[in-house]
Amino acid sequence: MTATLKAEEQNQLQLVEREEMDDEDDLFEAIDKLINQGINAGDVKKLQDAGIYTCNGLMMFTKKNLTGIKGLSEAKVDKICEAAEKIVNYGYITGSDALLKRKSVIHITTGSQALDELLGGGVETSAITEAFGEFRSGKTQLAHTLCVSTQLPINMHGGNGKVAYIDTEGTFRPDRIVPIAERFGMDPGAVLDNIIYARAYTYEHQYNLLLGLAAKMSEEPFKILIVDSVIALFRVDFTGRGELAERQMLSRMIKIAEEFNVAVFMTNQVIADPGGGVFISDPKKPAGGHVLAHAATIRLMFRKGKGEQRVCKVFDAPNLPEAEAIFQITAGGIADAKD
Question: Which ranges carry the RecA family profile domain (predicted)?
Fold first, then answer.
């Protein structure tokens, strides 16, 4: 009986390819639709070369940005924007419509019921979730668990989608995915095939990888982008604060989250906070300053507990109370803590 159930679940998982895309079609309009509005196919190709694959994504760029694309004059950009406005409504909508739009948001399980409850159901799509904490506080372990749980069917609290993983510190371990997949009753080979992975070495490389994602996400049903860790390369490549490059990177991630209704999960390091004061026993704050603070929708602070136990605290979120949850790192990934 169990074997039959597992087989059915795996069959359900394989449907991830195109079936779910029918529901997703309403979420974004392909950039090709501009051709039907009288835009030259060559100009559409120029937009695609610049990493713009949907009309929704196009509306997230200023006209100044678009005229920076080689071969697009101000007159052409005006015409393109006019055509896109006919396809996508980017004006006011009612609160009821906004609520309806929120219903397309999916909550992806973390593997721990306590942590899911803390997050209002799991890691949500169309938002940026940042997990910061010291070394070995469970951030990368959660990233690996999400690589698997995102591929679970919706009725099993998954995202029924593929995973994009950008690794800036060389911490991704494909062999770690195998026991996590087995815990969820999934085929490790199929799970690994549904993860696209890239190792980024410079902030420019990281940004280019993000630009290249638009093409993949417009064609395949991705449900999460994991960046582990988000600020590491800025701290290496910039002696100053590198705020402009940081803003561009985070702006791109916000656009990806909202344009394709994917969850963006990023890990972050902590730095000593000299202004923490004498009353705080261990004054630490997340790297990235106010730029990163404003970009992240949900900020989670991770810290070590007893043994393999870890504590997650909601540091900042628009719709979650400031509370804590205890979870555990196991061979099968993140799970509920045992008493």
Answer: 104-270, 276-339
pLDDT of residue 275: 58
Rounded distance between C-alpha atoms, residue 17 and residue 280, angstroms:
50
Place of tokens 């890990």: 267
d(CA 173, CA 65): 37
DSSP β-bridge partners for residue 30 = 54
Rounded to whole angstroms, the Cα distance separating 104 from 258 reads: 11
Contact (CB, 8 A) for 130 and 296: yes
In whole angstroms, what separates CA 22 from the centre of its chain?
21
Residue 336's pLDDT is 95
Beta-ladder partners of 165: 197, 226
Q: pTM of the predicted model, to two decimals?
A: 0.85
Q: Tell me if 200 sits within 8 A of 209, measured CB to CB.
A: yes
Query: How does strand 127-133 pair with strand 162-167?
Result: unpaired
Which candidate, 266, 339, 253, places its Cα nearest to that of 302? 266
| 260 neighbors 213 (Cβ within 8 angstroms) | no
Q: How many CB atoms lie within 10 A of CB 175?
A: 8
3-class SS string, 227-238: EECCCHHHHHHC
Q: Tokens representing 294?
A: 């404003």
- What span, in angstroms and rounded, lies between the C-alpha atoms of 263 and 108? 8
Closest CA to 154 of 306, 249, 322, 20: 20
Q: Which of 140, 108, 144, 127 is nearest to 229 (CA)?
A: 140
Q: What is the pLDDT of residues 168-200, one digit of tens each?
A: 989 999 999 999 999 999 999 999 999 999 999
The percent of residues in the chain predicted with pLDDT above 70, rounded, is: 83
Strands (E), the chain: 107-108, 123-124, 127-133, 162-167, 195-199, 222-228, 263-268, 270-272, 284-286, 298-304, 309-316, 324-330, 333-336
Would the pLDDT of 123 be above 70? Answer: yes
